[in-house]
Amino acid sequence: MSNLISLIGLILTSTLLYIVYRVVYNLYFHPLASFPGPLFRRASRIPWSLAVLRGTAVFDAANLHEKYGPVVRLAPNELAFQDPNAWRDIMGGGTSEIPKWIGMYGVPAFLPPHIQNTISKTYHRALRKALSPGFSDASLRAQEPMIAKYIDLMMQRLNLKSQQGPVNMELWYRYVVFDIICDLAVGESFQCLESDGLHPWIVAMVEGAKPMGFLTALNMYPTMATIINPLLGLVAQGNIRLHNEMVKPMVEKRLQVGDRPDLINPLIKLYRGQDANMDELIANATTIIGAGAETSASILTAVTSLLIDNPDKLSQLTAEVRSAFSSQDQITADAVSRLPYLVACIDEALRLFPQTGSPSLRITDRKTTIVGVPVPENTVVGIWPWALYRAPALWADPNEFHPERFLADSKYVNDAREAFKPFFTGSRDCIGQNLALIEMRLVLAHVVFRFDIKRTSDPNSKDWVHKQKNLFIVWDKGPLPVQLTPVV
Ligand code: HEM
């Protein structure tokens, strides 16, 4: 018994000594010891993880930049940069790009890697090369009639729904973008607009993504990651099976069709003749649909919420759209991209609600220099878009909705517009950015062309923007009920 007590005592004392050693090392001897940041953040990664659990990591990073300046030590081995030039130095593109950090992108380790999370440059290059033609201007132009078909259906359904009372635009935006992206990706729609409901696969995907921030935070501790990742693999088997059972039939059905101009076609060609390709095909299809739909739908919800909070700006947008078009069929991708106020409204929503408010964390593989600051090897580095886009030193009235800042208005002439990279930059930037912009501009133009939009008396509609909680890689958002009145 006394031996057991001595052993436990020894283990506890060694653990305590190790913790003290790590804290002292991190504070005084670590290569990043001279960088500013709060004591607890410099001593341990735990406060970083707690911020993720509380859903405040993104906002905390902004507050810490405000207190400590444009370069902050957020965790013992991690620096955050709030400087427009950091995009170039961290994601610059080509060989100068700092690689993605497995601590962030290695989750979930039990699923095959996909275009967004792979840290292999070779695998990424092959996927990106195969997928790029599907996102080219010519390809998007060819898809425009299909996009228009879903937006028309949305307008018809909203026309009907608006006569029955308030409409939750947060849902309707998701319906339309999921229907479009699923059709683009695998050649069939989720039929959300028709059924006025989210396909169970979407619900499973969104719910499944929520714990990812938590898992990612755990994965950032190397010892924990080696134990936890295999365990998670076992625990998640059931969910993976469920997910695959839902997506597999769609992918299999698609495989029967053969050659057709959708986004998954190049992947089918890439994997043709390889055995273990179904899981990778599913992982990539899921990523394209997930990355493409939730992001665009959220920005549409954000811009609608911001516009009804700012009636003068909504009037200006409405006037621009209604004077540019006399019928719905004139609202084309080319035409909406020539409406400066519409384009600026969406840009301003992207600035205020960057869809990955969280950073793309990278890790230096050699000594380097970022915004003129020497950074040692093995340092995790990132730009926190929420913090960068709301920095008082870089933007006038940073927390307010002013599309005018993108229209050369003299009040905003000193804004750091070069800091604004809603789709990031370099070889890992958003492959779907042109599609996203076209789709969001078209949907918003149609909505303001066809309807007068007002707040409902529902208190939920008032503070959509404040209801958001960042779960590190996904946002948790509330509904946006509005009153729509058809005008044409
Ligand atoms: C408002 C809409 C959108 C926003 C704000 C957005 C933003 C982003 C950002 C910031 C990244 C980089 C993420 C990272 O480094 O981890 C990214 C990557 C990606 N996005 Fe988007 N995105 C949007 C729409 C779309 C659409 C419509 C699609 C496709 C249908 C798409 C597909 C992807 C893919 C596949 C990647 C990974 C690219 C790679 O690593 O090569 N996104 N997106």
UniProtKB/TrEMBL annotation:
Belongs to the cytochrome P450 family. Keywords: Heme, Iron, Membrane, Metal-binding, Monooxygenase, Oxidoreductase, Protein transport, Transport. Its cofactor is heme. This is Cytochrome P450. One of its GO terms (cellular component) is membrane coat. It comes from Xylaria flabelliformis. SUPFAM superfamilies: Cytochrome P450 (SSF48264). Pfam families: p450. The lineage of its organism: Eukaryota, Fungi, Dikarya, Ascomycota, Pezizomycotina. It comes from the Eukaryota. GO terms for molecular function: heme binding; iron ion binding; monooxygenase activity; oxidoreductase activity, acting on paired donors, with incorporation or reduction of molecular oxygen. Heme binds at C430. GO terms for biological process: intracellular protein transport; vesicle-mediated transport.
